[in-house]
Amino acid sequence: GVLYPMKAHSDDRFDPAGESYGFEPYDREGGDPVEIKAGSVVFFNGYTLHRSLPNRSPDSFRRSLVIHYMSAESLLPWDCDQTITLTQDNRDVIVVAGMDPYKDKGYVTNNTFPFVRPDKGSSHGGGA
């Protein structure tokens, strides 16, 4: 996979997580909007450049469920709440098929958990 560099941003429309950059030759602006009906779902490949612009609906909010399906040979430097060192292999995983080449590293539990991003001033919570 590709890990793009991250930088801080000061855009209050979004959560305080870092922003990836260095997507050349792709433009920051533009893209093809994907509008769906309420209650619908969108699936896409993790290599698809994507973003979610602010929800302008006055009486609803977006929900998201992020699931990563990946090779057992991949390291998992995941940090959902900026409390874990991103170079750490956070082995909060469930192997569903095949062999784990890093089984000797052991596993951790409750390392990741459902969470709500910080409220950025809207009446409906998180900003992404």
Automatic annotation (TrEMBL):
InterPro entries in the cross-refs? Phytyl_CoA_dOase-like
Q: Which Gene3D superfamilies match?
A: q2cbj1_9rhob like domain (2.60.120.620)
Q: What cofactor requirement does the entry state? A: Fe cation
Q: Which organism is it from?
A: Octactis speculum
Q: Which PANTHER family match?
A: ECTOINE DIOXYGENASE, PHYTANOYL-COA DIOXYGENASE DOMAIN CONTAINING 1
Name of this protein: Phytanoyl-CoA dioxygenase
Q: Tell me one GO molecular function of this protein.
A: metal ion binding
> Which Pfam families did the record assign?
PhyH (PF05721)
